[in-house]
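B., you asked whether I could sanity-check this one before it goes into the benchmark set. Here's the sequence:
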Amino acid sequence: MLQPDQKKARMWGMLCHLTALATFIGIPFGHIVGPLTMWLIKKNDYPFVDEQGKESLNFQISMTIYGIVAAALILVVIGIVLIIGLAIADFILVIMAAVKASNGVSYRYPCTIRFFK
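And here's what the prediction gave me:
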C-alpha cells in the first residue's frame, strides 16, 4: 500500500504534465505556465515532482521552439503539416507522461532540449 506522501507526489507529478494541456483549451502559454506553477508550488516538497516538473517544462519549452520553427516554415507549405504533427505529438506524449507519473514512474520526453537539469 502506498504511503500518503507517495500518493501526493504521484498526483502532483501527474499534474505537472497534465496542466500542459491548458493550451489546448485556449489558455495562452498555458502549456508553460501550468507546469511551471505546479513545479514551483511543490518542487521542494517532493523530489519526484521536482524531477517531473523540470521534465515537463523542458519538453513544453522545446515544443514551443519547434512550433516557432514550424510556423516559419508555413511559407514553404510544410510548416502546416509540421504544426499539426507537433500538436498531436504534444498531446499524446503529455498523456503518456501523466499516466507514467501517476504510476510513480519517471518519464523522459523524447527530442527534448534540457534547459533545467
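One thing to flag: The chain has one domain: 4-102. Otherwise nothing jumped out at me.
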